[in-house]
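User: Structure please.
Assistant: Input sequence and predicted structure:
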Amino acid sequence: MPHTGLRGRLEQHEIGLLSPGQLSLADRSVTEPQEEKLEQRPRRRIWIQDEYRRHRGSVVRKRGNAAWAWYEVGMKDTLVLVVDDDEDIRVLVRTLLERAGATVHEAGDGRSALREFHARRPDLVVLDVQMPELDGWQVLERIRDLSDVPVLMLTARGQELERVRGLQGGADDYVVKPFGKQELLARVQALLRRASRPGRDEEPESYADDYLTIDFGQREVSVGDRVVQLTPLEFKLLACFVRNPRQVLSRDQLLELVWGDSFGVGTDQVKLYVGYLRRKLDPDSPEAVPIETVRGFGYRYRT
């Protein structure tokens, strides 16, 4: 054992080691005052002394733990609204996010969630699906009428149709209960990174060709005289195509340009959303939409 030699040298100099019971009593949590209290962190000190109490020393656990810094600054200045009728879930999510530096507000039902959303204007919403009165789908629909804020759906159902319904309804990501703590934090941070990415230096106010017209400021799309209602993700996908006309974009490129972070997102999502977009632009003849499939490569918008 690597510690055998050390123990022998201590005993040779008549320095005994405290028993496990004594060590537990000697262990103390000491919180040092800080100008900005993000979280009180315990300092562990283990005392070692000889049997005559003439020699005394200590071993201190240093604070060089990178996890502390990650928790403190990961979501600083971020406001998150957590909506779930299960108080235990709300407390768990709130604790995780506050440790990461976020400010968290809670709502236990859909109506309270909408009131909090109007009052707080959060940077991200964690939204449960199954709730009394207004369920998560109805709350999501009303949020999407007002804002493109990132929405992470929580649900006990993991079926593919449920996930598709959430994504098609405007949700940005989907987590199934029970969820891993680190996975939830990683997905929240990925959504915040996407939302905070700056736009192009010279963003055009509008786009028009022989097929469609886009008002980027109003997030409005028209095909002929018909206004097309798109979810925020569908709008981002269409904007990506029209900004790169006649250029073949692979699925991986679209994941990077539209989703921004491919954590938990596969290339099948690109195919799924291209199909949604085609049907929205032309419900009667989706194949007539000028978004071409280039087999083996990706997709191209041909004006």
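The chain has a mean pLDDT of 76.
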